[in-house]
Amino acid sequence: MLKGTKFQLKVWRQIKKIQKGKIKTYLQIAKAIKKPKAARAVANACGKNPYPIRIPCHRVIRSDGLLGGYSSKGGKRKKIELLKKEKVKLKLFN
User: Fold this and answer.
1) Residue range(s) defining the domain that contains residue 39
2) Is residue 64 part of a domain?
3) Distance, CA of 75 to chain centre
4) What is this structure's pTM?
5) Among the options 15, 23, 43, 57, which is catalytic?
6) Element at 27 (helix H, strand E)
């Protein structure tokens, strides 16, 4: 069973809905959970994700198109690798 704050659990449930090969922004996730001003908190919840593949936080990026962080082993390089494997087209892999 997942353990986290109510907010984190909401974020993680929303992230699990992102289909393979698709991406969402932290802001889109915040809006989807009815917390439109909480994009930074969403990013923080992604960083606390205890199951980075099962809860695919690598599919969540910044609103400006940049990747943002990735707290799993391998960091941003792993995030890039996972997104490329899913054939996600991004303007910038930074």
Assistant:
1) 6-85
2) yes
3) 13
4) 0.90
5) 57
6) helix 26-32
